[in-house]
């Protein structure tokens, strides 16, 4: 299986329950020969999430640390009304906006219909590029309906490779990969690292892809240029340093 060299889902100490800095994350990413990592700390509504100013301040992060490209991002929280805690003024500074269900911001996950409706509301809002960990048995959804909406609105869905959480969601994750691949919906893989050592840790994701019979080449983050053109297509400014760097490397 082709190695994924982009980790789109990493947390830093800006989320108070995570343990590493952006430089530590980038250092491990460089050791693992990753090309890009996205810094995607939790939105401000989650207890211990990063504050609004943090997201705007990401503009001071160098585009490359130890040769690893850094995308400025957020993992926003979906609330009970299908809204996210990422304002337009925050978005102006971000290269990638992801969002997912997290307690206690999303307070009642019991009902599949409601979860599905709120997730689709976020997908249709035009504000979010990637839905994080949609395959989570604690937040049951109608996968087919979510995949259909993701296709319609050109939003990517994440195969979350964290071994610490959602391990009971493996069957659902396999189903997600199969359903998304059949529908031609963008899938990305993320480590959801909360400590630098887990950056680029995709073993569980590879196992799930294998079980679903889908190669990793299918994933949007298997190629930098493909990922960057997706983000541009989603309305983000292109990162000029990345375009020249990754095109020169022949990753087109
Ligand atoms: Zn999350
Ligand atoms: Zn996360």
Protein architecture, described:
Strands 1, 2, 3, 4, 5, 6, 7 and 8 form an eight-stranded mixed sheet that branches. It contains nine helices and eight strands. The radius of gyration is 16 Å and the shape is globular. It has one domain (6-248): TIM Barrel. It has helices at residues 22-31, 52-57, 88-91, 112-124, 143-152, 170-183, 203-212, 224-233, 240-248, and strands spanning 6-10, 36-42, 64-65, 68-77, 96-100, 130-131, 156-160, 187-190. It has 252 residues and is α/β, with parallel strands linked by helices. The structure holds zinc ion (ZN) (2 copies). Residues 9, 11, 75, 192 line the site of one zinc ion.
Quick summary of this structure?
This protein has 252 residues and is an alpha/beta fold. It has 9 helices and 8 strands.
Shape: globular
Return the CATH class: Alpha Beta
Helix content: 25-40%
How many beta-strand segments? 8
| Rg | 16 Å
Which spans have pLDDT < 50 for at least 5 consecutive residues?
Answer: none
How far from one another are the termini?
Answer: 19 Å
Order of helices and strands: EHEHEEHEHEHEHEHHH
Give the CATH superfamily. Metal-dependent hydrolases
């Amino acid at each position: 299986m082709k190695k994924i060299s982009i980790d789109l889902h990493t947390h830093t100490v800006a989320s108070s329950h995570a343990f590493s800095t952006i430089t530590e994350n980038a250092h491990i990413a460089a050791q693992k020969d990753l090309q890009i990592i996205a810094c995607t700390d939790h939105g401000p509504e989650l207890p211990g999430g990063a504050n609004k100013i943090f997201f705007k301040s990401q503009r001071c992060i160098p585009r490359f640390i130890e040769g690893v490209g850094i995308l400025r991002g957020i993992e926003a929280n979906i609330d009970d009304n299908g809204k996210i805690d990422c304002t337009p003024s925050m978005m102006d500074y971000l290269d990638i906006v992801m969002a997912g269900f997290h307690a206690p911001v999303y307070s009642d996950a019991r009902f599949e219909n409601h979860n599905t409706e709120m997730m689709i509301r976020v997908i249709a809002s035009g504000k979010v590029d990637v839905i994080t960990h949609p395959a989570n048995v604690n937040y049951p959804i109608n996968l087919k309906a979510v995949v259909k909406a993701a296709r319609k609105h050109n939003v990517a869905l994440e195969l979350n490779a964290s071994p610490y959480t959602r391990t009971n969601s493996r069957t659902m994750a396999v189903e997600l990969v199969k359903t998304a691949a059949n529908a031609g919906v963008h899938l990305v893989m993320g480590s959801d690292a909360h400590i630098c050592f887990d950056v680029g840790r995709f073993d569980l994701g590879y196992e799930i892809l294998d079980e679903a019979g889908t190669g990793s080449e299918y994933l949007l983050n298997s190629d930098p240029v493909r990922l960057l053109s997706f983000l541009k297509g989603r309305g983000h400014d292109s990162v000029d340093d990345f375009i020249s760097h990754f095109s020169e490397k022949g990753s087109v």
